Amino acid sequence: MPNLIEDIDIINPSKEPNQEVKTTGDYNSGNKRKLYIESYGCQMNFSDSEIVASILHKEGFDTTSDIDQADLIFLNTCSIREKAEQTVRNRLNHINGLKKKKPEMMVGVLGCMAERLKTKLLEEEKIVDLVAGPDAYRDLPQLILQVDDGAKAVNTFLSREETYADISPVRLNSNGVTAFISIMRGCDNMCSFCVVPLTRGRERSRDPHSILAEAKDLFARGYREVTLLGQNVDSYKWSEEENNKARLEKKEVNQVVNFANLLERVALIHPDLRVRFSTSHPKDITDEVLYTMAKHENICKNIHLPVQSGSSRVLELMNRGYSREWYLNRVASIRAILGEDCGITSDMIAGFCTETEEEHRETISLMDVVKYDYAFMFFYSERPGTLAAKKFADDIPVETKKQRLDEIIQKQSQLSLERNQRDVNKIHKVLIEGVSKRSEEFLQGRNTANKVIVFPKGNRSKGEYVNVFVESCTTATLTGRIVD
Ligand code: SAH
Ligand code: SF4
Ligand code: F3S
User: Are 268 and 200 within one domain?
Assistant: First the structure.
């Protein structure tokens, strides 16, 4: 993962959400005004930037990856931890320098920080001309006109319906093989540490017809893997009755579509289209989802199941809706239905309010039981407006938080290596994503469990499936050779 915005947070070879910053690729159709977007935070935000690019492309903007060429700079921001917001503020500082040289350049802040701070952002960061929350992107052309007319523009209205279902995203920075599809927006859980329900609003599911159409279109264009995205995919729910009376009157399908049903429908598009999804919630993931995964070879055997803490008392304070025992029970079901090789990954928070040393040890011992393939690891950062900020003191000293995080990272390092060693001397089916970062002579791709595998390229190219015999590994990567 390039350009980590939070340096100590992860040991992770994957393209998982949260810590990267990505800039727009070039998309040039001869339009005059140039848009440059930088995206921070989770994959949702990257996906949204593709929607923004699509909306603005119709309005006469092309995208550029060269910030100096930009007429309009957008930062699509993240509020998940204080550090994420600080990164954006530093970036705005830097852009201030550019704007001095090019005063006509427009600067917009989108995403979660825009939603959280609203007009305050205009007061605090004088350089910002435009503020748009995650549900306000259809209004961007209008907001840009206001700025063209010399005003500042803000829209942070949160919607109960918006899913951008009809907007076909412009794929930015794409490898042409793997793509993300948003299947829902917002979150109705109230994890006490988390700002997402405040910045992304109520949970809503996207019309399955538009999801399937997008996946089919991607497959037809040569893509071979889609990742279905939502903050809690297990609560995906769509019913024609509630959502689309018009279609119901035409006597098309009238049924409730849950996540397992949706997953199966996407998997049935083509056996060569791999399907992944993120994020699963331990309180909601059903055996039906696990059996659906087992039934279809092309649904990848990897589950991102963030635990956050191994202590039932801390989980209760976090309002996660499950206990340590419940979590371990879900893991036992995964192992029973999908076997030992199914990848399981997690997010962990060190030093949540009132966490004792003993409770921290429970997180480490749970990691030992589950044996995660990898994890995103953070120390607790209090977010204004969250339940935890209102109810509990952020009372663990930062040195203690960092020390606990360090121990969690050490443990995960050891587990990642152990899990990768299991893969050595075995043949893995790999979808090739492109040339390895290490060398032009090597290709890289992933196996079903989302492990990165690097191998000499032979005469193969991206988008193809190959069988690779893995000969060695590190904590992050498997290395091998093609055997077919
Ligand atoms: N919807 C996903 C996670 C979204 S946020 C889920 O429920 O798992 C991604 C991760 O950021 C969370 O899983 C959590 O580990 C971390 N995180 C969220 N709020 C945080 C905070 N205030 N401090 C530190 N880490 C946080
Ligand atoms: Fe945040 Fe919890 Fe929703 Fe995940 S499920 S986005 S952690 S509130
Ligand atoms: Fe994602 Fe960050 Fe928002 S993690 S949902 S961009 S707060």
Answer: yes
